[in-house]
Amino acid sequence: MAEEAAAAAAASCSNNKSKAAFLPGGAGHHANGLTKPAGSGIFSNSKPGAAKKLVIKNFKEKPKLPENYTQETWQKLKEAVEAIQNSTSIKYNLEELYQAVENLCSHKISAKLYKQLRAACEDHIKAQINQFREYPLHVLFLKKIDTCWQDHCRQMIMVRSIFLFLDRTYVLQNSMLPSIWDMGLELFRFYIISDLKVQSKTIDGILLLIERERNGEAIDRSLLRSLLSMLSDLQIYQDSFEQRFLEETNRLYAAEGQRLMQEREVPEYLHHVSKRLEEEADRVITYLDQSTQKPLIATVEKQLLGEHLTATLQKGLTHLLDENRIQDLSLLYQLFSRVRGAFCIFVLLTVVFVCLDKLGFWKHNQREVCQRMKEAFATFINKRPNKPAELIGQEHFPSFITAAPSANVKVQLITMCHKYTFIYRKDVFEAFYKKDLAKRLLVGKSASVDAEKSMLSKLKHECGAAFTSKLEGMFKDMELSKDIMVQFKQHMQCQNLPGNIELTVNILTMGYWPTYVPMEVHMPPEMVRLQEIFKTFYLGKHSGRKLQWQSTLGHCVLKAEYKEGKKELQVSLFQTLVLLMFNEGEEFTLEEIKLATGIEESELRRTLQSLACGKARVLTKIPKSKDVEDGDKFSCNDDFKHKLFRIKINQIQMKETVEEQASTTERVFQDRQYQIDAAIVRIMKMRKTLSHNLLMSEPADLKKRIESLIDRDYMERDKENPNQYKLLTFCHFIADT
Asked: Cullin family profile domain spans which residues (predicted)?
């Protein structure tokens, strides 16, 4: 293929010794946490400018605690904790107790104090469990649990206020220890709520109250809110309650939906569903945790709406439409808009259009309705700005153009063109479509050239000739290449040049086709000679042009002889270079093939993998495996068999990576910048001066490009009015590029 400070510090050194001078300054100096005035007597009297001597004295000995102080102090603290737990008065002053805790912590008795406090709390909570195990399941049981929880929280707040110094020093410095509050939660969870009987009766009681409320009974909502808040604080809400709650909700509404669909008419049923949804939303606000909202509402919608979609439409939709019950139809639309699914969307659109027709609106406002639908679809499809354009250009069009020709291709083309009109980033579509179109044209993968040209004409009709000029240039290059090859064959016959290789060349104009990275490979002398002959022939007819061979796009047909008989192999140029090596030897290693062919390593590995590990294995690899590794050896497979005479061996394609897609998109953005620059200058050339708001009402991404043009001195802000822009006179040429 061919393609066209200054520092103020001082130090003195002598005889390999150094002496630092401490210079007084500011309010004073700090040493070991002490602060002394600058002019205090701690400095010896000396002449001005001379170094002063700083005398540092040790602290006095740390005072020791009296004998039995630790035991007596803990006894006071223990009595205070027990008084709090028993709701009696405390004998000692709270400030005295706090100071006692601080004294113990200051003398490194924190660990022992923490263990003693935990043991005291643990003993008290253990004694509470027995009163709940044999208590019957009743509302009084729930109130007793709630009272116990509220008392526990109040007690732990008081205890923590006394032991606050311990909590903020020793506990804070040990990440493995829970804080005093968390310790209290942990003990309550372990000894009270984690008890199987207590937890089971608590959850059953909560679910019973919720069921009664759903049945219309009045309940104590504050009790429910407190109990569920307790479960959330103890971090067992989801595991112990939410799962069972959702299961019970699913069971309740499944039975209710089946029963009411048979008993009630559709309007009445829809109002009941709406009421149920409002009730459940109110429960989430009042006493349930916010994390329950999404699965709870989804469960109600599924059992009351999703499971009865067909039955609702068959039973009452026609009746609602015939009687023009607009409010009920509006409620139907609001409720079933919650249900996902293509069929549901169809139903919603049916309801809307029939309502419009019944009201006479569709007949008189058909154009406005269609316009609103188009705007809505365009907004939806462009939620992800680049992806729709990329998918349509890269996947959808090639999917049917490369298929076998059929009568349905025309319909598919029209449908895809309609989708194309809704995407905003048409330059992204062009980049990906051009890249895949080039593959189809060069490899001959397109099953219908007419379909390709039909697609091009539709794009030209939608976007104008400028948009499709490069794409049309690609088809023109292919047609001109055919004419050039006819002339080249005639030239070869006239010159009577010997050779048994038939050469076909496609001349690609560089500006029309995607950019390809050239790769220099070592080709056989016969191929090199033919390339030079064609180069001389072409440049003789078109002087001033330059040819650059693209080895990555070449393909060949090789004749091979096997024990079974003669075969023709349709392969890429890289596969050709590898196979021709086996005319000179029987076995080669990966390194030897790389050195002889000059093919880049990753490309060579894919080439050898297609020849030795694919369906048509014309080479034998030792050792046998799916991947090509260093040190593998390859030899010709003389026993190769195939039912076809001409066999196409596909090159293993490297899947397009995210980086490659991002690179293509980035090139599109770079090209777009120049177009936006030119558009801005054209506008400014016509207006001369323009306000910021009017200019920003033009295309998106404009702000960045305006700043770029100002930085490059193509335009400037008005000095008197910063909201006005002026075009500089010397930049008129950019508008014509």
From this structure: 372-612
Region 215-231 average pLDDT: 93
**Six token digits for residue 454:** 């039909």
Task: Report which listed range, 319-328, 562-571, 660-669, 685-694, is most confident.
Answer: 562-571
> Would you give the DSSP letter of residue 43?
B
* Secondary structure percentages of the chain, helix, strand, coil, to 5: 60, 10, 30
Cα–Cα distances (Å) from 101 to 86, 104, 106, 166, in that order, read 21, 5, 9, 7
Greatest extent of the chain over all pairs of C-alpha atoms, in Å: 124
Report yes or no: 563 and 639 within 8 Å, Cβ to Cβ: yes
Task: Say how far apart CA 703 and CA 26 lie, in whole Å.
Answer: 52
Query: Is 23 a residue whose pLDDT tops 50?
Result: no
Could you tell me if 12 and 18 are in contact, meaning their C-beta atoms sit under 8 angstroms apart?
yes
Are 234 and 199 a contacting pair, CB within 8 Å? no
Q: What are 283-290's contacts with CB under 8 Å, separation 24+? A: 283/210, 283/213, 286/221, 286/225, 287/221, 287/224, 287/225, 287/228, 288/228, 289/228, 289/232, 289/237, 289/242
Q: Looking at residue 383, what is its pLDDT?
A: 67
Alpha helix positions (H), 498-600: 525-541, 573-580, 590-597
Structure tokens at 363: 């007949």
d(CA 167, CA 354): 70
Read off the pLDDT of each residue in 679-708 and give the average, rounded to a whole number: 65
Q: What angle is formed at CA 267 by the lines to CA 263 and CA 271, rounded to 5 degrees?
A: 95
Q: Is the pLDDT of residue 2 over 60?
A: no
**Would you say 273 and 335 are in contact if contact means Cβ atoms under 8 Å apart?**
yes
Residue 711 has pLDDT above 50, yes or no: yes
- Residue 692: name the closest of 737, 669, 714, 683 by CA: 683
Nearest to residue 29, comparing CAs of 10, 54, 60? 54
List b or e across 559-582, with b for residues whose CB sees 16 or more CB atoms inside 10 angstroms: eeeeeeeebebebbbbbbbbbbbb
Asked whether the beta carbons of 257 and 280 are under 8 A apart, the reply is no
First and final C-alpha spacing in the chain: 31
Q: What is the pLDDT of residue 730?
A: 43
